[in-house]
Amino acid sequence: MRNGTRPDARRAWTAAAADPDAGVRRRAAELAPRVGAPPAAPLLALLADAEPLVLEAACWATGEVGASGADGDALVAAVIAAAGHRDPLVREAAVAALGALGDPRGLPAVLAACDDRPAVRRRAVLALAAFDGPEVEAALLAARADPDWQTRQAAEDLTVDD
Questions:
Q1: Which one of 1.20.120.1760, 3.40.50.300, 1.25.10.10, 2.60.40.2470 gives the CATH number of domain 7-158?
Q2: Distances in Å between the alpha carbon of 76 and those of 34, 60, 113, 130, 135?
Q3: Stretch 139-156: mean pLDDT, rounded?
Q4: pTM of structure
Q5: Inter-CA distances, 77 with 12, 27, 43, 45, 157, Å
Q6: What is the sign of the dihedral through the CA atoms of 47, 13, 130 and 96?
Q7: pLDDT at residue 162 greater than cutoff 50
Q8: Which long-range contacts (CB under 8 A, 24 or more apart) does 70-78 make?
């Protein structure tokens, strides 16, 4: 029940997002899209979680639910920060979320991720589909020569030769 989430379900989700157990917090992040528009404060807390698996799931959830409303700026900023995390899974999820959000403030982080590990580069190239501009075209052109064949393929799929 995406838009008609019951108040008790939202309260349960909010409590789970603050649970001391990282596994419960991760599951709360995974379930955030089912809450509809989860409260921003718990989602922001998940985006600041010290446990990388929780943070990774929170990035994914933010990409799924979007970053609108009064706390949209904070959500976008938190995902941009996660794009520089030490854990590559977190960086990959953050870059995917930035592509899903399509917020222009996320473009520098997506472009920077084009120089990361292969899995992160692939995700960054796919995220570039949400953006326009000469720097995006240059990044896609460079990705067409990437050593990783999947990154090259993603870039080729997003570009059209005339």
A1: 1.25.10.10
A2: 20, 12, 16, 15, 20
A3: 97
A4: 0.91
A5: 26, 23, 13, 13, 29
A6: positive
A7: no
A8: 70/40, 71/40, 71/41, 71/44, 74/40, 74/44, 75/40, 75/43, 75/44, 75/47, 76/101, 76/103, 76/105, 76/106, 77/105, 78/44, 78/47, 78/48
